[in-house]
Amino acid sequence: MTYGRKFIQAAAVLSATLLASMGAAGQPYPSKAIHLVVAYPAGGASDALARQIGPVLTDKLGQVVIVENRAGGATVIAAQAVAGSAPDGYTIAIFDPTTVAMNPYLFKKLPYEPVKSFQPVSLLTRIPFGIMVLPGFPANNLKEFVAHVKANPGLNFASSGAGNPVHLAMEQFKDVAGLSINHVPYKGGAPAIQDLLGGHIPMIMMDIPSAMPHIKAGKIKVLALTSAKRLEQLPEVPTISESGYPGFEAGSWFGAFVPMGTPPAIVARLNSTLREGVAGGALNSWIKSMTFEPYTSTPEEFSRRIASDAGIYGKLIKQLGLTLD
C-alpha cells in the first residue's frame, strides 16, 4: 500500500469520527434536547438521581434534558427503548445491575442483548446494603449474628424482592458464612422494613438509603455493611469484609449508558461531564445526603464491573433456580 493511499484512508477515518460527533444538522454535539431514560417509576431512587443529573447535563452541555420514565418488565421496557434508539448521544439511560447483569439469567429469552445493546458510560453511585435487626436482637456484631443464626437454624430474613440485588447479597453472604436461613420476599423495601419494625420478621438485608431514617432514630440496628468500606454517615458500623469475611463485597449501583454504536467522542464527553458533576457541587452533596456513595469510572472500568457482577449474579441465580418468565 502506498503512502498516499494510507493517508487517504486515515483521513477518511478521521472524517467519519468527526462527522459522527456532529448533530443531524451538522452542528457540534449536542444541538438538541437530551432524553434521560429511567427504568423505574417516578419517585424512586433512580428517578430522583436522574432529576438531579438533568440540571448538571444542562449546565455543562447547554441543552434541555428530558427525563423519561419507562417502567415495567423488570427494566426490560426501558432497555428495549434505549436499545432501539439512535446511537447519537441524545438518549442516555440510568440503569442498575438488573438490566445488564441479572436479566440475562432471570429471563430465558431477552428482547435485547446487554453487551451488544448498550455502551457503558460511567458509574454514578454505589448503593450499600446492610444486615439489619431490631435493637433487642441477641447480637451486636456480625460474629454474634452468625453464631446466633447457626444455633437457631430455619430463621427467616426479608428483602425487597426475589432475585434483586438485595436478596442476592444475602444469598451471597449465606454461602460464605454457611448459614441456613429462609428468604421471605416482599414487594418493596418499605413493607419489609415495616414488618421488621413490627417484629414479624427477625432480620432483613436492605439498602441503607431506604432504612436510614429508622437507623438514625435508633429503631433499627445495622450489624454490618456489604460495601468495601465504611460509610461516612455510619462510621461506627463495620463492613462484612472487616468482620471476618475478607474480600466480601456486595451492593448495587446506578450507572449511565448509551446505545451501542454511539461515537467514542460523544461517550468520552458524557463520561467527563458526568464524572465532573458527581465529583463535587450540588449533585455530590445530594448523593451523599441520600447515603449513596458518589462513584464514577471510565467506560472500560464500568464494563469490567458489569462483567464481574454478571458472573456473581449468574451463579447465584442458577443455584437458586430463579426465573422471571
Notes on the structure:
This protein has 325 residues and is an alpha/beta fold. The chain is built from 12 helices and 11 strands. It starts with a helix and ends in a 5-residue tail after the last helix. It has 2 domains: 31-127 and 251-320, D-Maltodextrin-Binding Protein, domain 2 (3-Layer(aba) Sandwich), CATH 3.40.190; 129-243, Periplasmic binding protein-like II (D-Maltodextrin-Binding Protein, domain 2), CATH 3.40.190.10. Helix 4 (97-106) packs parallel to helix 12. The chain has helices at residues 3-20, 45-61, 76-83, 97-106, 114-117, 142-151, 165-177, 189-197, 208-216, 264-279, 281-289, 299-320, and strands at 34-38, 65-69, 91-95, 118-127, 129-133, 155-159, 181-185, 204-207, 221-225, 252-259, 293-294. It is 45% helix and 18% strand. The strands form 3 sheets. Strands 2-1-3-10-4-11 form a 6-stranded mixed sheet, with helices on both faces. Residues 1-25 have low confidence and may be disordered. The chain is globular.
Features:
325 residues; alpha/beta; D-Maltodextrin-Binding Protein, domain 2; 2 domains; six-stranded mixed β-sheet; three-stranded antiparallel β-sheet; 11 strands; 45% helix; 18% strand; disordered N terminus
Secondary structure blueprint with pairings:
Blueprint: H1 3-20, E1 34-38, H2 45-61, E2 65-69, H3 76-83, E3 91-95, H4 97-106, H5 114-117, E4 118-127, E5 129-133, H6 142-151, E6 155-159, H7 165-177, E7 181-185, H8 189-197, E8 204-207, H9 208-216, E9 221-225, E10 252-259, H10 264-279, H11 281-289, E11 293-294, H12 299-320
Parallel strand pairs: 1-2, 1-3, 6-7
Antiparallel strand pairs: 3-10, 4-10, 4-11, 5-8, 5-9
